Amino acid sequence: MIDLHCHMLPAIDDGARDLDTALNMARLAVADGITTTVCTPHIYPGLFENTVPGIQDAVVDFRAALKAAGIPLAISYGADIQVVPDLLQGLRAGALPTLHNSRYFLFEPPHHVALPGMLDLLHNVIASGYVPIITHPERLSYVEDHYEQFLEAVSMGAWLQITGGALLGRFGHRVKAISERFLAEGVVHLLASDGHNLKNRTPELSEARAAAALLVGEDEAQRLVQDRPRAILDDREPGAVSPPHVQPPSSNKHDGKARTPGLLGRLLGAGR
């Protein structure tokens, strides 16, 4: 598996507090079946003032520490980018990092206040050739009231990333239900750990992948944690990547209840 969203770099944000914690997180990831982790520290003006050179230096040091400790985890970098007014300019100038120097980047909306003009901002970055990956929309406090906005964002070309722990109920029943709803809609592109520590925010994916497979089928679960993440690392065009696909209930070990038609199906009038 490939984890595209993890706060494993030591002492750089609210993730791993020190090198020992970071190395133990890496060991946990490897034991869970993760072969590559993209380290994505926060870039949050006023709180986490990380820069591309600083992140690059931290990756070089951590890669050397992994090698010295004999931990077979490949790492790269990006950032969990809090939405800023000069987002597009920062991407173009290289002041804001994309994932593994690809066209894809993590786009973190505010947690408690809906972002005015979010769709316009997404339109501008997409029109400029970037693919924003909206991180953990299921955990936003206002997501129910703005749910359709996230579906519209996907229809425009944005991708959605769900947190593995959210799907397992680690953020509460409400967040778990919203995660399942996004999956049932057929709009989730990626599953990532958003790992921060060794306790309640661990850098693991296998259990969440198994939970996703019960909802969307084994093939799609594999795409969530391997195929699409690999396509991002290879910087493939989004049109060349398999879109989210929910298998019909008969092909899943599920309760057989009818699901909400996916976004494409609803756009075409399916299920009416």
UniProtKB/TrEMBL annotation:
Residues 262-272 have a biased composition (Low complexity). Residues 234-272 are annotated as: Disordered. InterPro entries: Caps_polysacc_synth_CpsB/CapC (IPR016667), Metal_Hydrolase (IPR032466). Keywords: Hydrolase. Its EC number is 3.1.3.48. It catalyses: O-phospho-L-tyrosyl-[protein] + H2O = L-tyrosyl-[protein] + phosphate. It comes from the Bacteria. Belongs to the metallo-dependent hydrolases superfamily. CpsB/CapC family. This is protein-tyrosine-phosphatase. It comes from Candidatus Marimicrobium litorale.
